[in-house]
What does this fold into?
Amino acid sequence: MKIIEKFVQVCNYLQDPYKVSWFQQICGVETASLRGDQDEHEQHLCNGINRFIEKGKQEEEDGPIVRHRPSIKSDIAKSLSSKNNLPNGVINVCDHMKSCAGDSGSDLRKSTADNHSFGSETLGKGPEQSDGLTVDEKMKPLRRNSLTEEDGQAFSIKCKTLYFLFTLGTELGNELFYISFFPFWIWNVDAYVARRIILIWVWVMYLGQCTKDILRWPRPPSPPVVKVEVFYNSEYSMPSTHAMSGTAIPISLLLLTYGRWQYPFIYGLLLALCWCSLVCLSRIYMGMHTVLDVIVGVLYAVLILIVFHPALDFIDNFNLTYRYAPLIIISLHLSMGLFSFTLDTWSTSRGDTAQILGSGAGIACASHVNYRFGFMPDPTPDMLPFIPPSITLGLLAKSLLKFCIGVVIVVLTRAVMKKITIPLACKILHIPSDDLRKARQRMEVELPYRYITYGTVGFSSLFLVPRVLYALNLS
It folds into this structure.
């Protein structure tokens, strides 16, 4: 019993948002608040963002009112019922944040809360200020919230190097990276490795997103946390899918390439560790996750790898050789999408899940077609291991040319399919299409749009683009 209590205490300690705030402060991230009248300023009630009330002495007596993040000890059913049919990540304001953890770290909480309260002076001692604002350090999140269109709270950065480093780290788990990294490996490095990593990536992301929508834990509240990123702020927090993909992809890359390619194991291990660490720390720096979210994400990804990596040969061979594999692949991924759409109301999480499943289905079907027609055959064992070629200007130019041609084809495919699928779904289902953003929030439109569009993109990446490159003598 004492072991369980100790475990709960450790989890609650790692879940404390003030640990996130402390990490942000030592990295030079601070709130850039304006002095003056804040009574009219009211934040959107989104996941991880709270209302602030400054009327008379209320704040002096009670402190800023923030939302309580569920502790490990709380009843899950109570956590779910508190949602009151609000959209994904929109949760009512409740208890003061100090109830999140025990008495330990109270001094840090007090100082952090004082620094982050609205109407206070800008944190730290920066350059000369105007109206209480550090003008030359003021920044906003790069992208608006995908659900509410809020642009986020202003903040200041003392260390630009860490800001750009962790921005790079968080981009390693975003769509732009996926749509660049996987195709580059297919067209320029090793299609065999790429399609197997995509298999793992699909399962890791799908299970991670579904777990988020089942647990429904909110993002770390602000204050005390500074929201350096708000794009995914309306999603739930536990586990961190960035940490999951940032763990699964580099480890899978190491497991699949070592022995197939000649390189020192220590180099691959160091790359995997640096990759994983950068992505995980970036999510805390951005104010999107607590330490507990990130740790659980890493362990969850490792567990999925332990289960699925030994089955990769069977799954890949089934996709390639079984006659009815495309039909089963499409049906399975579509069923998984329908299940995930029933877990919660519309959010970026639900749309991303359909997008991931569509991409995975397209890649798997393209693998089957390539095998049937004898395109892109896998090398025989006597050809292994591969020796990495010398990096020359000619090799870089050819790789860049192949990548650019492929990206043009993929982007055009995506644009055409998007132009076709959304209006067509609206017309078939008799849904008004004058507001496409609102129409896409309906499952009947969002699922076929994401699934068909990105399924076609995945198929084009592994089948159409290599055929074009072969015709241009660039293969």
